[in-house]
Amino acid sequence: MTFEINEPMVLGTLVFETLGAPEREREFKIKSLKKWGFDLVSGIHNGKTIYATRPEGAAEGESFEYEGSDVSITEVLKEYPKNAKAYARIEMEEGTAHLVLDLEAEESQEILRVPAGEILLAFLKKHRLPHVANALRTLGSAAELVRHDGESGKPMSFAELPPVPRRFLREAKKIEKDMGFGRIALAWFGENKEGKPRYRMSWMVPTIALFDEHIAERIDKALAELK
């Protein structure tokens, strides 16, 4: 077997890490469910009030399935039940990331389990976050964001970086500090004859954080620096 080593990339790619395990669980307010495209509803099952999520636009009197039974919606909630909180996490099932949401009240109840990618892409499109959506490549407990432009070459050292990648790195580090995790691999090759930047960039961030609109907006803005 022959070696086909891309030595300049191996030796010259800059890597910046905020070490730690990717965040797997995060608290979300009920307005986040709306932004993901869901309503929180309640119904009566075996004499007990239960909660579930339905596609946005649910109405009282409609039915949904719960543990093999049809349950009629008694209320479309605008707030969580008293003293209740909701926590979302990412679970992997046969190589696919799923978004799981638990409602923590008097008892804990799972109210949502859906493929994370489908909901995340719809969420990013709905809220006009194209830079994140276009950069998204893979989803696990961490999401991989990739941007690249132009032909590769010899990567610049950190000292040689122009203002654009420096601004991106500065903002990305602030975001990673708030998320508690992140990893950026950046190879900046300079500009082509037309003055356009040439680069390769990969950014790992916690998948669950992308469901937080505030963080997703900050990441989108940071990625926009990389024209």
For the CA atoms, what is the radius of gyration? Answer: 22 Å
Q: How would you describe the oligomerization state of the chains in this entry?
A: single chain
Q: How many β-strand runs?
A: 13
Q: What general form does the structure show?
A: elongated
**In DSSP terms, counting alpha (H) and pi (I) runs of 4 or more, how many helices?**
6
The percentage of residues in β strands lies in 35-45%
End-to-end distance, in Å?
39 Å
Mean pLDDT: 92
Which strand order spans the largest sheet, edge to edge or round the barrel?
A: 1-12-13-11-10
User: Which H/E pattern describes the elements?
Assistant: HEEHEEEEEEEHHEEHEEH
Report low-confidence residues grouped into runs of 5 or more.
none
| Overall SS class | alpha+beta
Largest sheet: 5 strands, antiparallel
Helix content: 25-40%
How many structural units, i.e. domains? 2
Written overview of the protein:
The structure is a single chain. By secondary structure, the protein is of the alpha+beta class. It folds into 2 domains: 122 residues, no CATH class; 91 residues, no CATH class. Helices cover 26% and strands 42% of the residues. It has a 5-stranded antiparallel sheet. Strands 2-7-8-9 form a 4-stranded antiparallel sheet. Strands 4-3-6-5 form a 4-stranded antiparallel sheet. A hairpin with a 2-residue loop joins strand 10 and strand 11. Helix 5 runs antiparallel to helix 6. The protein starts with 6 loop residues before the first helix and ends with a helix.
Kindly list the characteristics that best describe this protein:
227 residues; alpha+beta; 2 domains; 4-stranded antiparallel β-sheet; 6 helices; 42% strand; UPF0128
